[in-house]
């Protein structure tokens, strides 16, 4: 016979807005609702804490035997802003909540290959020179409504062609793959460059690395605390969504444990990886235009591998080391010292990052196999040093995390603004938001921030009759059905209704100049 508990679970809890996911987008959606006095909402979160891909863990130990807190997910505030430019909202909150961070100095770098330290930093400068050419080429494709192509094609035409020069491949990886977690072949030329501009030219080219020992998600907890109390019954942690039934009049969300929520609206902030892996069932099945957009965009994998040693055998005054494998592009290429002033001085901690295909490979391996590979690379980089065994070693497996399935999205070659708009668009009362729905800032924390806010404002506008989302309106997003999608996007269609409210040509200190 059913117990009282299971009988209770069969009765759906009612709420006005069900916010699915307690990452950046979910929390900012809830905040936007609260700002318009829509307080009847529930936030449903898989994990035991809010933050999502803002995720930290304890690692190694300091001189007193206490562990360090390291970030497995988002680590940098990217594109800060200056007094005369717009400011990245994540940077605004990082300052407000005094999140400890240090400027990442990308010019503090030593380059290596399999024979040890070899200076090929001139290749980074050469890539930079090509950049000024290919970013213009990408601009013409956009304004003249030409066909998009791969970033690889754009680079080649601008005179950058690394061919079999592995140092040049490493330089290219440092300048591109490291940021987007995707290769030049996989990345859109137009939207790759537009995305770069919108973060680094609109705000600034600075990236600050968060070292806060409370964890980076303290920033989000501080934002949440302005409208959610500690232990607020509207925050449902450790609660896993299994299916979402939507209609023109509302949304019913059913959890893995059989409990359910009936809402007038829902905002699904699950990652593109979650949407692509069919872990949540939608009823009815999502329309073709939605499924096409989910299938089209790309979920990358970005894996940081952390090592602590009993000594700092590398130069602690240099922040980065770039390694060019003689045979495999992207094989343990970027190393970062945390045993450095401003980070965790004297911690003897180093981490190396892999992305894309290499990240998939490494994430399928056990720790011992990866550790052996990593140490073999260090022995090549430091041929005159006896590399000790690490005293602590860890890395996450983002590609298999059931609440993320990858790290962050990237814009693939040869698609349009309208196809991406369909990723953003609501299906009846079911709305979508997250890093991946950001046209301007996909892959970034601030992308998730703006998109969560947008969805919250759109729904609050519907509910209250007062629309504060002046740029792109309230209620339904623009969506493009069969027959409405074309091969290219007209310049006039680059607007807030298609998610591009800021000119992709925005240049520092000149309002949207072209
Ligand atoms: C390794 C890595 C490095 C990164 N580095 C940076 C960086 O340096 N700077 C930067 O700006 N950005 C970085 N990012 C990107 C940034 O972390 C994301 O853009 C942002 O955190 C995404 O927020 P979101 O709200 O869209 O998604 P999420 O944070 O994924 O939030 C979605 C939430 O939904 C929950 N969820 C999923 N499935 C279910 C389910 N079935 N039931 C209930 N809940 C569910 C998840 O637990 C999660 O909390 C990085 C990401 C990764 C992974």
Automatic annotation (TrEMBL):
Instruction: List the residue ranges forming a coiled coil, or say none.
Output: none
Known EC number(s)?
1.4.3.-
Offer one Pfam family short name for this entry: Amino_oxidase
Q: State the InterPro entries in the record.
A: Amino_oxidase, FAD/NAD-bd_sf, Flavin_amine_oxidase, Flavin_monoamine_oxidase
Class of the enzyme per the UniProt entry, highest EC level: oxidoreductase
| Record key words, sorted | FAD, Flavoprotein, Oxidoreductase, Signal
* Domain of life assignment: Eukaryota
What's a BP term from Gene Ontology annotated to this protein? Answer: polyamine catabolic process
Named cofactor requirement(s):
FAD
Q: Which GO terms describe its molecular function?
A: oxidoreductase activity
Binding positions (FAD): 241
Give the Amine oxidase domain ranges.
24-458
Protein family according to the UniProt entry = Belongs to the flavin monoamine oxidase family.
User: What protein name does the entry list?
Assistant: Amine oxidase
Native source organism of the sequence = Massariosphaeria phaeospora
């Amino acid at each position: 016979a059913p117990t009282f508990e299971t009988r209770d679970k069969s009765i759906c809890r009612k709420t006005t807005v069900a916010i699915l996911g307690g990452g950046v987008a979910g929390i900012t959606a809830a905040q936007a609702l609260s700002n318009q006095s829509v307080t009847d909402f529930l936030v449903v979160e898989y994990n035991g804490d809010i933050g999502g891909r803002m995720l930290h863990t304890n690692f190694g130990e300091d001189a007193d035997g206490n562990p360090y807190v390291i970030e497995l997910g988002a680590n940098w505030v990217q594109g800060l802003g200056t007094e005369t430019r717009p400011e990245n909202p994540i940077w605004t909150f990082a300052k407000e909540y005094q999140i400890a961070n240090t400027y990442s100095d990308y010019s503090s770098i030593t380059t290596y290959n399999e024979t040890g330290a070899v200076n090929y930093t001139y290749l980074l400068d050469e890539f930079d020179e090509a950049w000024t050419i290919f970013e213009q080429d990408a601009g013409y494709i956009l304004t003249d409504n030409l066909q998009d192509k791969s970033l690889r094609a754009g680079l080649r035409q601008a005179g950058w062609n690394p061919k079999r020069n592995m140092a040049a491949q490493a330089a290219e990886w440092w300048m591109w793959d490291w940021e987007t977690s995707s290769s030049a072949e996989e990345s859109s030329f137009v939207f790759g460059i537009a995305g770069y501009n919108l973060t680094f030219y609109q705000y600034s080219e600075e990236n600050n690395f968060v070292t806060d020992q409370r964890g980076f998600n303290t920033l989000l907890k501080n934002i949440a605390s302005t409208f959610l109390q500690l232990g607020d019954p509207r925050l449902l942690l450790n609660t896993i969504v299994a299916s979402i039934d939507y209609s023109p009049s509302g949304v019913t969300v059913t959890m893995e444990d059989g409990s359910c929520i009936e809402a007038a609206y829902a905002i699904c902030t699950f990652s593109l990886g979650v949407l692509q892996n069919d872990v949540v069932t939608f009823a009815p099945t999502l329309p073709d235009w939605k499924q096409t957009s989910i299938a089209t965009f790309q979920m990358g994998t970005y894996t940081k591998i952390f090592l602590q040693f009993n000594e700092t055998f590398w130069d602690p005054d240099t922040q980065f080391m770039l390694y060019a494998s003689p045979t495999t592009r992207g094989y343990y290429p970027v190393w970062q010292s945390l045993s450095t002033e401003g980070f965790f001085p004297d911690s003897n901690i180093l981490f190396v990052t892999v992305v894309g295909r290499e990240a998939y490979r490494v994430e399928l391996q056990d720790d011992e196999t990866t550790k052996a590979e990593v140490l073999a690379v260090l022995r090549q980089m430091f041929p005159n040093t006896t590399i000790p065994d690490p005293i602590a070693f860890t890395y996450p497996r983002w590609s298999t995390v059931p609440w993320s399935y990858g790290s962050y999205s990237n814009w693939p070659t040869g698609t349009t603004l309208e196809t991406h708009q369909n990723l953003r668009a609501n299906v009846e009362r079911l709305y979508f938001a997250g890093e991946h729905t950001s046209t301007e800032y996909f892959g970034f924390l601030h992308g998730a921030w703006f998109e969560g806010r947008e969805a919250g404002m759109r729904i609050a506008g519907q509910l209250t009759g007062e629309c504060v989302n002046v740029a792109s309106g309230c209620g339904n997003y623009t969506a493009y059905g069969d027959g409405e999608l074309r091969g290219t996007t007209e310049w006039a269609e680059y607007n807030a209704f298609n998610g591009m409210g800021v000119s992709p040509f925005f240049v520092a200190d000149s309002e949207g100049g072209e």
